[in-house]
Specification:
- The protein has 10 helices and 9 strands.
- The protein is an alpha+beta fold and 277 residues long.
- A hairpin with a 5-residue loop joins strand 5 (141-150) and strand 6.
- The chain is elongated, with a radius of gyration of 22 Å.
- The two termini are 38 Å apart.
- The model has no long low-confidence stretch (mean pLDDT 87).
Length: 277
């Protein structure tokens, strides 16, 4: 541990080391993207080398380190760290798979089914009418809704664009035309009861959700067993979301909501670099 004195403020700060639980492959990926971007824009100089920039960005994403804290520990400004962060998540998000290619890739590998689920990523509560759609009555919190498709082993293969927190999962799935694209790829999907009614072709369904109980019509014994079987097959779905939310920046997104889609897709790329089942 070393002391760091700020001449402008005349105060002392303590700089400490922190272990980042990520593989060298992840660091190499991000630093390689930094070097490639600098070469593309013909930039000859940065305040820090590409490896250090990559490490700072990964610290923000993994540990949700405050930008001003990292800036002070590396003798740069908080605005510089913010610029590096937005630049790198943009480069990573560009490598994220889109829906149709991701489904076709699974079909080529003889896959027959994917898992479908949604999650609310919480955001800061902001004032103004523009933030009202982000309030989720279901979760009693402000956030943005994302859909994700993990494969049968729990590896995330696709993440949707952000939708306001008040949106329903079924409406979001219809917005992305997931049912039609699954049919085109020749795949099916297992989903929870929140997606009941999504599939518009009950004679040839591609979305399997189980049976929901209604007033006066409890599920039969066979339907309960079918629901248990679907839940058992969907268990791997939780692994995918758990891996994604290990990036603590998702605990509560403090950056502007317009960057949320880019952030989630960047974390998808980093998660798949770290974990492959």
């Amino acid at each position: 541990m070393r002391k760091n004195t700020s001449p402008a403020e005349g105060t002392e700060g303590l700089v400490y080391q922190c272990r980042l639980p990520l593989s060298s492959a992840t660091l190499d990926l991000v630093s390689g993207l930094v070097r490639g971007h600098l070469k593309k824009i013909r930039s000859r100089w940065r305040k820090l080398p590409s490896g250090r920039i990559a490490l700072i960005v990964l610290a923000v994403l993994r540990h949700d380190q405050r930008l001003s804290d990292l800036a002070g520990g590396n003798d740069v400004s908080a605005s510089t760290v913010r610029r590096w962060l937005l630049e790198e998540i943009g480069l990573l998000a560009a490598r994220a798979p889109r829906l149709e290619p991701a489904l076709k890739k699974i079909a080529r590998k003889s896959g027959v089914v994917v898992l479908l689920d949604g999650t609310l990523v919480r955001t800061r509560r902001r004032t103004g009418d523009a933030n009202r759609p982000n309030y989720s009555g279901k979760h009693k919190a402000h956030g943005l809704l994302f859909l994700a498709l993990p494969d049968e082993r729990g590896n995330l293969v696709w993440i949707s664009a952000a939708r306001p927190g008040r949106s329903s999962e079924v409406t979001t799935a219809r917005h992305h035309k997931i049912t039609a694209k699954l049919r085109e790829a020749g795949l099916g999907a297992l989903a929870d009861l929140g997606f009941t009614g999504l599939d518009d072709d009950p004679d040839d369904p591609v979305i399997i959700t189980g049976r929901k109980a209604t007033r006066g019509h409890p599920p039969s014994t066979a339907q309960k067993e079918a629901n248990k079987l679907i839940s058992r097959e969907r268990a791997a779905n939780e692994h995918g979301f758990a891996d994604l939310k290990n990036w603590r920046i998702l605990t509560k997104v403090r950056m502007n909501a317009r960057h949320a889609t880019t952030l989630l897709r960047a974390l998808l790329v980093l998660t798949n670099t770290e974990i492959q089942r």
